Amino acid sequence: MNKYRKAYILGIGGTGMSSIAKYLSQSGLSVGGYDQRRSYITNTLEQDEISIDFQVEDIVYKKDTLYIFSTAFDISKTNLGIHSKKSNILSRPDFLEELTKDKYVIGVTGTHGKTSTTALIAHIFHYNNENVSYIYGGVTSFSGIGGHYGINNKILVLEADEAFGTFKSLHIDDLLVTNIDEDHLDYYKTYEKLFHAFQAVIENTKNNVVLNLDNSELEQMQLSKKVFHYSSSEKSDITLREGAAISHKGVEFLVETSMIGKHFKSNIAGAILIAYLNGISIQDSLLAIKHFPGVRRRSEFIGIAAGVNVYDDYAHHPTEIEATITSLKNHITGKLFVVFQPHRYTRTLQHIDRFKTSLQKADESIVVDIYPSGEAPIPGVSSKNLDGENIKYIKSMRAVPSYLINRVSSGDTILTIGAGDITLLGPQVLKYLDEKK
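The structure assignment produced for this chain is given below.
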């Protein structure tokens, strides 16, 4: 890959692809890309002098350019289709496989929490003057889009995604696994295959493996290699104690952070342990964590109007949704109103009952139409299926603000949640609330 001085990223507006674009741009390549629509991410990339096309006809094949496409992107419908077998056209998993061959890779995987944990590890290293490279699918206020080509480019902190089997081909030296839960069964077909994929990646890791043993799936996994672990058990290398405390080898430490929820505390413990195994003391990690601003769209505070707080979160799996709602309810005093946009028809079909249970943890939930993320509709699968006790179906997001402003009162909280374009709703709700005052 080092022979290319230009790169073109297809699906560049996605969080995973944009981080690769930023990494390659900082490495010295001239980077461009294509996406279907403008967004916060494409605007940010353009400010960094990364040129972006929005018409598929503008995608042109050139021999001197490295093309990288998202797994969800169909290149057969572009001018690259007839060149798809050329060595300079790579899928995201193939690119990451090549990239990780000559790096010391600290990988983070798991069904939930991997983006936040990867960002946290990268922040810990940088706060402690270790300018490592990193690639993760999120946006933070300390680094913007989650891609960075470090001065010490021999170390790469990488979000190792299980979707489409991406993590199976990576060359990983140290691995942190946050948890395993049922997801991406449209690809894996059965939970057993998903579980064994995680198991294989763990077994293939060259050096240190760190597991969250509060996750029953990881706690029960039979492995042939020694692992380090964090959990609420006293037997763990890092123990999560009551409140804001953790302990290591009998010594207790106080965690100071702005992040909300037990799941974030668990992620913090894992990040501290992997950093410790790479030579960063627990005290130095804790100081970095104190100044970690969090990842965009992870219980992110959007604003307040008419006394109503508005938050936004990327959660799109029932476990994540329940954890986010529970954490936020413990943090607020008034009622919690949730607006959920399901992500993909396959996931909605698989988890319909669990979504209902999770959403009923809020005082009132609204569901809008499914964000397809490139999937074709499945007959009979609709957000209407979620309508029920304390859950109201509203077809269009545009109708939600006018409905909400007549339901909420000063002191209440609104949470928009989902992996699609639901993130655009929060500012609109704030505008309606301001006009109501």
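Interim note for the steering committee: Residues 262-276 form the longest helix (15 residues). The chain has three domains: 6-92, 103-290, 300-436.
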